[in-house]
Amino acid sequence: METFVQIVTILALVSVIIVLISQNRHPVSTLAWILILCLLPGLGLVLYYVFGTHKKKSRLVKDSRISERKDQVVAANENSIRRELPDGHSDIASLLWMTNKALPLGDNDIKVYTKFDDMFGDLLRDLAAARDHVHIEFYIFEDDEIGRRLGEALIALVQRGVEVRVIYDSAANLTRAKFYRWLRKNGVKVKAFMPVILPILSPTTNNRNHRKAVVIDGKVGYTGGMNIATRYSKGIRGGVWRDTHIRIAGPAAAEIQTSFLVDWEFCAKEYVNGSRYYPHIGRCGNAIAQIATSGPMDEWNVTMQGMMRMITQAKEYVYIESPYLIPTEPVLMALRNAALSGVDVRLIVPIQGDRGILVPLATRSYVEDVLVAGVKVYFYKKGYLHSKTLVADGTMATVGSTNLDVRSFEQNFEINAFIYDREVAQTLKEAFMKDIEDSVPVDIRRWEARSKWSRFKESFARLFSPVL
Question: What is the CA radius of gyration of the chain?
């Protein structure tokens, strides 16, 4: 029996190594996995199954299904599609179109939120005004005061005939089954994204639906960094929870709708489409926006590529807020090159983490890498910074669910609004400058003088960057 197990293990190792080599991954990644598999055969196979499987050739739904919904967006909003963008941003719009079929849509009114209570109050009012359908997707719904208030609002909608659908990430909500049973019992259509029973044995555990998206009657959409939890309102550890979210009234809400309906079809195996979900909206404001989605099954790393293009195109400044600084090599190079070329690159990250010690340590391991190139780094000290924004040159910004880390760029399902509007960019710049007042600048000389032990801990944490 022991010999049989050894033979099976060897055959499995050889098969996995052959697959690894044939996938043409980065040589460092391939060699690292081969080393793990050879040194720790049993554990290595489990780790590869959970964290290493390649999903690029898979699709959530058929491309034809996505195209059918895109056709609905065009039919309802053809006059709002912008073929040329102001301030020289047509190349970014083309990039997002070629990689994600993201339509640049004008005539939007976009409101920026930097406080959860403001966002949640508007969301509840918009929900109360819903007449046909409400689609909601969040990474986390806490079963707490805020979660229950939203749940009660959704149940009230169902009771007066509004169709309500909810998607939540399974791995992030394993302890909240009772909350979702309550919603289902009261008529809300609820589905988990990639259901996980035993997280450590599931190959989908590492691929999380990190998107935050709300669509009301196909006309109003919300997206950004905020989840549904009391800590977003009350803060943590005596400090505020600082985040950024946006409300979009206008044609771009239709693209948030497409993102949700594609995820819903994957989760529920239900094809939902039609003019009911894509009504003609008309002019609501002046802002132009593209809604871009990305995920491990996509051919391109869409949100990463869009953000990189913003960084490399900037002439004056790039201001970024992120809970984490664990970038891919291309993003790290883009940040360094921008700063070295004279662009004012500033980055705010939290001084402490919201979970565990590995993530903040890994973030700190990259601080010196950008400081030496001239990037200005600040540690937010007023509470916890969860905002995910990038604003450049006062003409363009992106707000969404994507962190500046490997997980968001390569493992998670994300959604971001790329906004071409001076007013929105100015609002985000002012919010950034206010956050700097609540942050501590990192002095490069003092940072370089930190202890060898601190450096080792940070470097060790950095090894786990792909799964943090």
Answer: 22
From 89, 133, 135, 386, active-site residue: 386
Catalytic residue check, 178: no
Closest CA to 261 of 306, 225, 218: 218
* 134 backbone dihedrals φ, ψ, rounded to 5°: -135, 130
Assess whether 393 carries a catalytic annotation.
yes
Residue 415: partners with Cβ closer than 8 Å, 6 or more residues away: 211, 212, 213, 223, 256, 259, 291, 292, 293, 294, 400, 401, 402
Q: Which of 411, 357, 354 is nearest to 386 (CA)?
A: 354
Query: Mean of the pLDDT values across residues 149-157?
Result: 98
What is the pLDDT confidence band of residue 195, given thresholds at 50, 70 and 90?
confident
Spot the catalytic one: 169, 217, 298, 421.
Answer: 217
Is residue 118 annotated as a catalytic residue, yes or no?
Answer: no
Q: How does strand 133-138 pair with strand 404-405?
A: unpaired
**What predicted TM-score, i.e. pTM, was given to this entire model?**
0.91
For residue 413, the 8-state DSSP code is B
Set 169, 298, 393, 405: catalytic member: 393
How far is it, in rounded angstroms, from Cα 421 to Cα 398? 11
Q: For this structure, is 452 an active site residue?
A: no
pLDDT bin (cut points 50, 70, 90) of residue 48 is: low
Q: Among residues 388, 405, 421, 429, which one is catalytic?
A: 388
240-242 and 213-216 strand pairing: unpaired
Q: Is 54 a catalytic residue?
A: no
Active site residue 386: yes
Q: Which of 51-60, 136-145, 165-174, 340-349 has the lowest mean pLDDT?
A: 51-60
| Catalytic choice (212, 219, 245, 429) | 212
